[in-house]
Specification:
By secondary structure, this protein is α/β, with parallel strands linked by helices. Helices cover about 35% and strands about 15% of the residues. It is globular and about 55 Å long.
């Protein structure tokens, strides 16, 4: 199989989907891996590192996309759509619900696509998304400390003296809560009741406030907070934080929206980039960068590559259909099959209909 790895073009995106060791395995299995020149450079991996393990370095994105299977990190950008070969396979963060035009183009090109963010393991966890969420949660704390500084527009509070409120008890929320507590902050975590929240309460201990989210708990925790971190993926419906909630934080506070690429958790949130990461609304500094882990591309690329290598090997060895039939967790990540939407939630957000992917597999 021909596997293409293009260089990422999203603003500030420095990650690469597969590291040389993963490419070596694919080449050893008889695959041709074409990687666009410079794709790994920002993560510390040179063209020569890939050539040494048998990859073919191509000079244009067009050549990288001319593959049976394209493996990349971030969602397809508008400028990349025309490069995708009809009837090919795509494996990356998809986020189809955020871009109708890209989704329509992929459908027209009869692309089959698996979303990193939707793949599950045998325990129902998301093995590709999870490490990225953890990295984003860990990054949220030093980023908060940076923007709290008076010379950056913040209220001039050290994190050890700060009130930090976190919404969400998943991987990102846990990572942010643990690090904030280690740095001496007064931590409050609010989330839906359940095992995750209970586990986090035990992990943080009595010095942190961990509670089920409610309107009263939220308002009390947000008002006057120095830092509020949204560690949830909220798609559609009412936002967790209202504009009034944000206003109650006060001037010079910091709001970090880790899940902005899923729609954001605040009425004041809008996507920012690494080149222009913040804006001020209601006196509060907003940091809503959609690809936060790209700030540490070497660590993030290593995490992505290790989490997807076996899936890519399976797709290359067995083909799309057989690989999906052999792995129900990978099957859950399928959002397009031959240009047909297979995820009901995504289809609803796009105003389209979906087809059951398992029915497609057994009839094709």
């Amino acid at each position: 199989m021909i596997i293409g790895i293009p260089k990422e073009i999203k603003d500030g995106e420095r990650r690469v989907a597969l590291l040389p060791d993963a490419v070596a395995m694919l080449v050893a299995n008889g695959n041709r891996v074409c990687i666009e020149t410079g794709a790994g450079a920002a993560s510390g991996f040179l063209d020569s590192d890939y050539q040494a393990v048998g990859a073919v370095i191509v000079t244009t994105a067009t050549q990288a996309y001319n593959a049976d299977l394209v493996v990349k990190v971030k969602e397809i950008q508008p400028d990349e759509v025309a490069l995708i070969r009809p009837d090919s396979m795509l494996f990356c963060f998809l986020l189809l619900h955020t871009n109708r035009d890209v989704a329509a183009a992929l459908i027209e090109r009869r692309v089959s696509a698996i979303a990193f963010e939707a793949v599950q393991d045998t325990n129902g966890k998301r093995p590709i998304l999870a490490p990225m969420s953890t990295i984003a949660g860990q990054l949220a704390i030093p980023i908060s400390a940076h923007w709290l500084m008076a010379n950056h527009g913040g209220r001039g509070v050290l994190l050890r003296d700060a009130r930090v409120m976190i919404v969400g008890a998943g991987e990102a929320g846990v990572a942010a809560g643990v690090l904030a507590q280690q740095m001496g902050a007064r931590v409050t975590v609010l989330s839906r009741p359940g095992a995750r929240l209970d586990n986090l309460a035990a992990l943080l201990g009595p010095s942190a406030r961990v509670a089920a989210i409610s309107d009263d708990a939220k308002k009390n925790a947000v008002a006057g907070a120095d830092v509020v971190i949204g560690a949830i993926n909220q798609q559609g419906g009412a936002k967790c934080l209202t504009r009034a909630d944000v206003r109650s934080m006060g001037s010079g506070a910091v709001l970090i929206d880790i899940g902005i690429d899923g729609g954001g958790f605040s009425e004041t949130s809008r996507e920012t980039t690494h080149s222009a990461p913040t804006y001020i609304d209601e006196g509060v500094i907003h940091y809503c960068v959609a690809n936060m882990p790209s700030a540490v591309p070497r660590s993030a690329s290593q995490a992505i590559s290790s989490s997807i290598a076996a899936y890519v090997a399976s797709l290359a060895r067995d083909g799309f259909k057989t690989a999906l039939l052999n792995d129900t967790g990978l099957l859950k990540g399928v959002q397009l099959y031959g240009g047909q939407l297979t995820n009901p939630a995504v289809a609803k957000q796009l105003g389209r209909t979906s087809i059951d992917v398992e029915a497609l597999l057994f009839t094709c």
